[in-house]
Task: inverse folding
């Protein structure tokens, strides 16, 4: 049987998720043995034609990106997005907190017009996506799991419950009990509460659960006297592009 | 010999980020020689405005996945300077350990996976899996070991979790120190064949004298985390005055911002550090340099990769020193910092400006923040190593192309690609701070 041809592509991102993949160590050789890698620019000079599975890192931030991702979608039988930039817009989405002209001018001055830039979008707002691996960076065990599912042609369901579930199982002291704002209660699990395990807070890099316990969250904020805008401020770090949901880059309504 | 050559390498591979090389020779005369940056701009300096200075590191470390720990450390240093916080000795030693792991990890990736394929005549490390299986396995194993240490120390290597302004949210315990030390000894065992392999690699011959810039200090330590800015042309300035060194300027043939200090261009990175601070390298690292016949001042940019190897030995040995000291003194767990307290203003802040200057794998990195009295970021500026090297790379290309004109187009292209790769450019980083030229195609 012919091996599945896999191609990696990057858009606006830090390439840290590719690096996570390279950081698998010798396990990487097993993965490479199971597929035929046809494109992975960061580590390969070979480039090649057709692919079955396209693995996409990074956000859509230029009109050129929009065309490029549409072309990739046309060729790929299966499209996987991985990393917050691709799945929810991520850190790149902080750009959307500002007026586009203003931020261009701030960074590039009178050369601002050299740059093609549009509001940051996750990939699924532009083309249909088959599998997602959330996180900034991706959590490797989950990446491997999703890749296996994609190769076997079976669905993978991202947990739609809060990071708190995993955090409790890890027996971490609740950040709110320390009177610290944490996005764990509204963020999708699947990372094994990575950041809180290391005494940092959840920044929401995996995106919001579809049905957050809004009232419970409100009670907690009230109990610890935490203003809502602190939470919103944190939400706008990774999750700002959610506001563009249901629209397309050219301003039209999303049809798919 | 009158000859026309047109080299246009689009989407340069085996570098971090997106770049093109454009060379145009007409009638034997070099008309155009550029390295273009085509990465999408991501506007970090713009979008960080208004955020708390305590969030700066979390955001700016995401400029780059490979240099994430380096950005973290430069960002924290700038932030702490801005608000007037002085880290403890324990914190600084742990940060040095983290930086050593960053250098090691990045250098190993570059030496083995990005450069070695050129020197062994293949397109990437993938064919090496069958032809040099043990070498590839060793490379991946060494990389993983650096990562495993970062996992213990800061939660992960890509976008570290526990290293923040003020110190660490979680400190290694006794068992963690033992685990790290054990991995370091295993790394030591793999370093031997790494040195042996590197000694057999043949680098292209080419020399161009340039100015080398890196951190310098008056102590005995090979400066990576702390120091003034120094150069082989005799420059020495405080880090706060970095703009007087980088002198960003726009050149007519390219809209990419370039830098220059005492002469037409300068180089940063492992070779610059080697040339400036050779005497402070660990004796074992100096021995490796002798073994491969390197002595400052080395003027062949291809040997930046060899200088990285020398630094690998230094960083590994110094990491072991740090660990052994901690084994003696123990870790003061009470120094752990609690994240988020800044929201209530527990850590005093003041209005001010701070600069971080840290030697990351690719060279000296500057982060510069200005905050208001509430600790909100008013202005931000980052100047990254690859940006500083672009001008130097182009000057190298301009000297080299006429010297190798008799070679085939393919050979010239490969030599140029190898030159750019030798600098280990990180275009993901640089694109946020560079003007981009869109070539008319």
Result:
């Amino acid at each position: 049987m012919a091996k599945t041809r896999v191609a990696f592509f990057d858009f606006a991102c830090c390439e840290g998720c590719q690096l996570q993949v390279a950081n698998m160590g010798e396990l990487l050789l097993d993965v490479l043995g199971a597929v035929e890698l046809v494109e992975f620019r960061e580590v390969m000079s070979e480039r090649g034609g057709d692919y079955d599975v396209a693995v996409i890192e990074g956000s859509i931030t230029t009109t050129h990106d929009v065309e490029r991702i549409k072309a990739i979608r046309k060729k790929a039988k299966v499209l996987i997005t991985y990393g917050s930039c691709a799945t929810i817009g991520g850190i790149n989405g902080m750009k959307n907190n500002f007026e586009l002209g203003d931020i261009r001018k701030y960074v590039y001055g009178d050369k601002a017009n050299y740059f093609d830039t549009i509001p940051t979008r996750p990939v699924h707002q532009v083309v249909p996506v088959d599998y997602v691996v959330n996180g900034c960076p991706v959590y490797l065990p989950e990446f491997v799991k999703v890749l296996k599912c994609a190769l076997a042609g079976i669905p993978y369901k991202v947990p739609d419950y809060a990071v708190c579930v995993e955090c409790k199982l890890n027996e971490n002291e609740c950040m709110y009990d320390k009177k610290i704002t944490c996005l764990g209660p509204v963020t999708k699990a699947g990372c094994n509460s990575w950041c809180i395990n290391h005494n940092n807070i959840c920044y929401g890099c995996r995106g919001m659960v579809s049905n957050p316990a809004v009232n419970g969250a409100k009670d907690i904020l009230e109990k610890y006297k935490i203003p809502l805008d602190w939470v919103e401020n944190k939400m706008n770090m990774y999750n700002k592009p959610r506001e563009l949901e249901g629209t397309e880059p050219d301003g039209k309504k999303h049809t798919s | 010999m009158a000859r026309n050559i047109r080299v246009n390498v689009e989407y340069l591979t085996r570098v971090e980020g997106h770049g093109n090389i454009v060379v145009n020779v007409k009638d034997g005369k070099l008309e155009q020689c550029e390295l273009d940056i085509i990465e999408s701009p991501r506007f970090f300096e713009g979008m960080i405005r208004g955020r708390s200075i305590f969030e700066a590191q979390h955001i700016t470390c995401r400029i780059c996945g490979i240099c994430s720990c380096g950005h973290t450390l430069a960002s924290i240093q700038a932030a702490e300077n801005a608000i007037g916080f002085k880290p403890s000795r324990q914190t600084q030693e742990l940060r040095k350990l983290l930086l050593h792991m960053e250098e090691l990890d990045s250098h190993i990736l570059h030496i083995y996976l990005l450069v070695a394929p050129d020197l062994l005549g293949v397109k990437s490390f993938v064919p090496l899996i069958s032809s040099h299986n043990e070498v590839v396995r060793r490379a991946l194993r060494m990389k993983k070991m650096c990562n495993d240490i970062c996992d213990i120390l800061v939660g992960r290597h890509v976008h570290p979790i526990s290293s923040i302004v003020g110190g660490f949210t979680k400190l290694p315990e006794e068992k963690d120190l033992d685990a790290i030390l054990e991995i370091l000894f295993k790394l030591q065992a793999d370093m031997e064949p790494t040195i042996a392999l590197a000694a057999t690699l043949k680098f292209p011959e080419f020399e161009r004298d340039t100015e080398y810039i890196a951190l310098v200090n008056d102590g005995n330590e090979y400066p990576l985390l702390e120091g003034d800015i120094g150069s082989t042309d005799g420059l020495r300035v405080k880090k706060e005055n970095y703009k007087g060194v980088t002198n960003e300027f726009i050149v007519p043939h390219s809209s990419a911002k370039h830098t220059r200090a005492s002469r037409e261009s300068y180089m940063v990175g492992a070779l610059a550090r080697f040339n400036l601070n050779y005497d402070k390298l660990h004796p074992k690292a100096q021995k490796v340099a002798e073994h491969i016949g390197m002595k400052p001042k080395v003027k062949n940019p291809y040997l930046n990769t060899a200088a990285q190897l020398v630094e690998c030995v230094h960083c590994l040995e110094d990491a072991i020193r740090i660990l052994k000291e901690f084994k003696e003194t123990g870790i003061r767990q009470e120094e752990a910092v609690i994240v988020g307290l800044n929201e209530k203003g527990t850590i005093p802040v003041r209005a001010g400006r701070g600069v971080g200057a840290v030697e990351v794998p690719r060279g000296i990195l500057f982060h510069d923040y200005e905050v208001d009295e509430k600790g909100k970021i008013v202005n931000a500026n980052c100047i990254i190593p690859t940006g500083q090297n672009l001008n130097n790379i182009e000057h190298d290309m301009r000297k080299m192309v006429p010297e190798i004109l008799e070679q085939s187009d393919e050979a010239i292209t490969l030599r140029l690609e190898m030159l750019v790769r030798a600098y280990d450019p990180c275009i993901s980083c640089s694109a946020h701070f560079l003007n981009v030229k869109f070539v008319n195609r």
Notes: The first strand of chain B starts at residue 5 and ends at 9. Residues 428-441 of chain B have pLDDT under 50 and may be disordered.
